[in-house]
Each structure stands twice: as structure tokens, then as C-alpha cells.
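Researcher: Here's the sequence for the chain we discussed earlier.
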Amino acid sequence: MSAITREGSTVTIIPDRDLVSTMVPDFKHELSTVLDESPQVLRLDLSGTAMMDSIGIGVVIATHNSMKKKGGRLVICGASENIVKLFKSMRLDQHLNLGS
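Model: Thanks. This is the structure I predict for it:
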């Protein structure tokens, strides 16, 4: 279960798992619950995530698109150097907010 905190119109979700195909279904359910709240900012803190595969990246992209459609934004923080390199190699850093 991910840690979820709320502060005003910002929700922070900290996955307690790697975002790989076998772990994504539970995480998608948690994200769905958070997205139903329509936060202005959704912070995805990846400090506890060591690995991410194509399925996990797909979830991040879908979450970014959902937030954008609702007029909000997704901020990714705490990502390991390897995950940041992965985003950059796919040029996702040009679309995703890799902030703090």
C-alpha cells in the first residue's frame, strides 16, 4: 500500500514498491482513488521505487495525461538517478515535471 498524504489541493503518493508489471495493478487502483479527488497537484514521490518497466512508465504517462485533462499537474520527485536517466532517454523529461 502506498503512503498518501494530502495538503490543501496537493496530494502526495509514495509507492512502496517498484513500478513493474506485477506490481502495477494495485498501484493503478490507488492512483484511481486519488485522481477521483481531482487534486490540483499530484506529487508522485518515487524515493522508494528502485525499478520501473514499460508498464510502470505507461501508468506515469496515463496519470500525467489524466491530470492535464483535469487542469492539474503531475510532479515527479525523489526519482533515482537511473529512473531519471530512463525518463530522459525516452525524452519524457520534456513532458513530465521532474521537480521536487
